[in-house]
């Protein structure tokens, strides 16, 4: 049987040989996590095997949750997200002490799910796999695989046009112009009325702006609240302007660290805020003393749920690629719908 830990170490050590110091430091932290957590390497390599098989068979996959905060996952090809590019702290994936059980969350075309299950049964029978509708909680480690219709749509578009989905540029001007004009009908995650209104009112210009819009439009009470009387989302009067809202849980941690708050406290505050627990009197006093502005304190108290930024990046990538086909191959796009 393949020594999965040794195989993973061999792959990552090759990357470390020519990597700059900042990358080597991040990889050292993540490798320590892998070596200290029993079975972690096997989880990573099992996910890598499924994703590779998916691509070999012509299917598209994307990562969910905080998986994109792992540089090792990126270098193994399990996720397309480079956490250093998007400033994603590893703690969001691995926990404050880097001791959280690995929890890998992946989307596939529904047609591929049986292939993924057979692959795991034959090659990694000791790694637990859950389907998306029955996935364990993150502290009960498993690889969670889900069927996502958008993944199936991308395969159909690729089959019709012959385009390699993974080569679609995320700065394509024609696609950006279409999205900036809020022509988002049929584009997953951006076709809701709220997302449409956000695009109209915030004037996004680049891919990263749409990542932020995804975070704001899918989180809970970041900028709006549900009005039971009107049955509509309304902007909360005490909330800050859109440009200053908190779109992701990662941002809370990084912002508080920049304010000089110690790592353990910043992480605990992030965890409470992203779960909708608000701020204790103690934590409010700490961040106020650190000169955190009043609007930020208010935001932390109102938020009910924050996505990990990695999740938003992954879903925005998928949406952008589908939008690219809408902009460049409208007939194929309509056929794929």
List key phrases describing it.
337 residues; alpha/beta; DNA polymerase, domain 1; 4-stranded mixed beta sheet; two-stranded antiparallel ribbon; 16 helices; 6 strands; 7% strand; globular
Task: Describe the protein's architecture and organization.
The protein is of the alpha/beta class. The chain folds into 3 domains: 4-147, no CATH class; 155-219 and 308-336, DNA polymerase, domain 1, CATH 1.10.150.700; 242-302, no CATH class. 53% of the residues lie in helices and 7% in strands. It contains 16 helices and 6 strands. It has helices at residues 4-17, 21-36, 40-56, 71-75, 91-94, 113-123, 149-161, 173-180, 193-202, 207-218, 249-258, 263-274, 281-289, 294-302, 309-328, 330-336; strands at residues 61-63, 104-108, 129-131, 143-147, 224-227, 232-235. The strands form 2 sheets. A 4-stranded mixed beta sheet has the order 1-2-4-3. A two-stranded antiparallel sheet has the order 5-6. Helix 3 (40-56) packs across helix 6 (113-123) and helix 11 packs antiparallel against helix 12. The protein starts with a helix and ends with a helix. The mean pLDDT is 90.
> What percentage of amino acids are in beta strands?
5-15%
Structural class: alpha/beta
Helix content: 40-55%
What is the mean predicted local confidence, pLDDT? 90
Shape, please? globular
Going across the biggest sheet, name each strand in turn: 1-2-4-3
Question: Segments where pLDDT lies below 50 for 5+ residues?
Answer: none
The biggest sheet amounts to: 4 strands, mixed
